[in-house]
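Re: Re: ligand-bound prediction request (bumping)

Still looking for help on this. To restate: I need the protein modeled with iron/sulfur cluster bound, output as structure tokens. Inputs repeated here so nobody has to scroll up.
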Amino acid sequence: MRGMNDSATAPRSVTAMTEDELAALFKGWGEPAFRATQLREFLFRKGVASYEGVTNISKKLRERLAAEAPLYELAYAGGTAGDDAHKWLWKARDGALIESVQIRVPGRLTSCLSSQVGCAMGCVFCATGLSGFERHLRASEILDEYLQMWGRSGEHSSHVVFMGMGEPLHNYDEVIKAIRVLNAPPPKGCGIGARRITISTVGIPPGIKRLAGEQLQLELAVSLHAPDDETRARLIPVSKRYPIKEVMESVREFSRKTRRMVTYEYVLLAGVNDSEAQARDLGGLLQDHPCKANLIPFNAVEGVPYKRPELEAQERFKAVLERFHVPTTIRFSKGRSVDAACGQLRRRSLA
Ligand code: SF4
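Reply:
Sorry for the wait, this slipped through. Here it is.
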């Protein structure tokens, strides 16, 4: 495996250590244990790109930390800023490239995070899905994405969405571990309200049921993309394992236990899933629980043979869903100006 040796011998980053582990490190250096709280509090409250910005610790100690306990695991590998989005690229210690995006809409800045390198779900309209799965991200790497975007841009995101590369519920434990830090108040974490954190999934029933049992008020977005198993299996190969009936049961359980309104995402592909009959079937599935639908007209992806439906077909689909009393929005692209690649279909649902 690439870079495995480097990654095994590299010093652990602050984001990979618990507060106790960091306190033990300081004690081992003859420093008071409370330095750990001091450092984490600064990191989670201020947003810094490097130790230079950690001004509540002496320069000498910062230099030792930089050599023996780096702040972050991920290295900056590039970025592109556009009008409505800023795409960031990070290099992991094993050489893997990870993408994150900050997306701006009036009054809101959202950090769109990746949860895996590649993705195993294989959605046929997605660039990442077409290139396969490489590995899960660790919680510390996910946290790095958020903190480094903040530190480097100087702008604190009010919201977090797991809509980058990967299926977050396929990497359940590490994603939840990262969310608990993002959600906890400083010095334990970044203090982002759970209702401002969205997990976007293709619909993995065991993961949705587990999520329903966490004591977290997260937002859930489910990509349905078709109201029947046959069409859905064509678009999302992994859905062959999880029939729509099971997905819907797990979402209703989530909705019942958390009392959260679920969002359904539906990418509209001309001639594939945009007929009136399919809109009626979808309305039938969604009408019995609190939810809303985001229709995402497909935007061309290189090497993908699907087309965007005409405006009239988009509006007709929306009108049918509204007859079933499902609040429905047609979403427009966010992040196109920086060619935000994978998960781009999902990111378009942000507004
Ligand atoms: S759309 Fe999302 S779940 Fe589907 S392959 Fe792409 S990254 Fe994976």
